[in-house]
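FORM 12-B: Structure-to-Sequence Request
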């Protein structure tokens, strides 16, 4: 960037000389009066313009311009010092970036902990993702203490270290397929509309056709309340050629399970209800009490697109069913995932699967800490 000076008896005259010499691309930096009319002299104005000169080296140069006034006796030579300011501008930009990282105060104080500027981006991400504040405090404190000083200035290293800590605190239930003669019964419970039936269809298709083991899979539905619930499952089981048992009374459940005794995997679909409808939740308890001699795995199905307080309310009321694991649905309908990590850690219940859409059987992800953490970091869940 070169800076040139032009003189004239009026600002207009000086500007015209600048435009004639430098063209319309010249940027006016300043216009000022440098001498007044007295003792026979005339007013004199200076216009300083900046001109991009890509061929010039970033060093100081001197240009000599001959300025002709209307009075030939006043012809003079004026020198304009020109300097390339690019290096200085880059330094200023770096300094501004450092200053911006400190402008998020007073949020940088969390309880008795002062969050360093290097962690500003991550701290904001935790806040935006409805992450539990006490957990944020614990994670920040641990990272400040354990992350080597030499790595704190490297954003990627800071990011990777936070991922490592999140991976350690996130409970995950890894999928272990059954041996040939083993049997497993899984009951899916949860509020209305969270996607229990669709999730069961995905799991049934996965074990019956996608693992290459030729597992026998059966489905039981206890949901005779919701309009179309039986028809929906019937449609899935007809396509997949799987047996379906419809049970309307608790005393009939044991016989339905006996009819499916040759199945390796049996999935039980239950009626959804509000987490505050204790009577319906107790009805599910009656069903499982009828088969208490059989080991039944209870999975609480939860939507990802609700607040942590809602997740806590749902869990508090469904926990009377002795929940074993969690499955999260609707990950494609939210951009905030900190509530899922916080909730799983606080309840100490491992996550089994993630549902990322309505497509059966494709939109199902086997539990994976890295997958959920990447969703958290990027505010978006990719489909695999």
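FORM 12-B RESPONSE
SEQUENCE OUT:
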């Amino acid at each position: 960037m070169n800076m040139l000076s032009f003189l004239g008896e009026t600002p207009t005259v000086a500007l015209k000389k600048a435009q004639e010499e430098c063209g319309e691309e010249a940027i006016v930096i300043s216009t000022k009066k440098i001498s007044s009319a007295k003792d026979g002299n005339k007013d004199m104005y200076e216009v300083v313009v900046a001109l991009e000169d890509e061929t010039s080296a970033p060093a100081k140069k001197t240009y000599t311009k001959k300025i002709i006034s209307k009075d030939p006796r006043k012809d003079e030579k004026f020198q304009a010092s020109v300097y390339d300011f690019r290096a200085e501008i880059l330094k200023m930009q770096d300094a501004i970036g450092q200053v911006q990282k400190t402008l998020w105060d007073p949020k940088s104080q969390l309880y008795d902990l002062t969050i360093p500027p290097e962690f500003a981006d991550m701290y904001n991400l935790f806040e935006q993702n409805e992450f539990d504040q006490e957990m944020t405090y614990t994670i920040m404190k641990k990272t400040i203490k354990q992350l080597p000083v030499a790595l704190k200035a490297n954003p990627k290293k800071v990011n990777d270290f936070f991922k490592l800590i999140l991976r350690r605190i996130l409970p995950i239930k890894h999928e272990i397929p059954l041996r040939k003669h083993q049997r497993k019964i899984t009951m899916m419970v949860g509020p209305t509309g969270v996607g229990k039936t669709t999730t069961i269809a995905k799991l049934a298709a996965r074990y019956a056709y996608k693992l290459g083991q030729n597992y026998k899979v059966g489905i039981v539905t206890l949901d005779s309340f919701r309009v179309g619930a039986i028809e929906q499952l019937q449609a899935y089981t007809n396509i997949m050629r799987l047996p379906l048992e419809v049970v309307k009374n608790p005393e009939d459940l044991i016989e339905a399970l006996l009819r499916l005794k040759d199945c390796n995997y049996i999935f039980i679909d239950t009626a959804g209800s509000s987490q505050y409808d204790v009577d319906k939740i107790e009805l599910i308890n009656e069903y499982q009490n009828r088969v208490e001699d059989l080991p039944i795995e209870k999975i609480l199905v939860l939507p990802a697109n609700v607040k942590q307080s809602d997740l806590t309310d749902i869990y508090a009321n469904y926990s009377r069913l002795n929940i074993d694991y969690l499955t999260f649905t609707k990950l494609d309908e939210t951009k905030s995932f900190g509530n899922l990590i916080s909730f799983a850690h606080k309840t100490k219940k491992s996550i089994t699967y993630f549902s990322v859409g309505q497509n059966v059987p494709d939109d199902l992800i086997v539990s994976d800490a890295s997958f959920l953490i990447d969703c958290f970091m990027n505010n978006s869940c990719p489909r695999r």
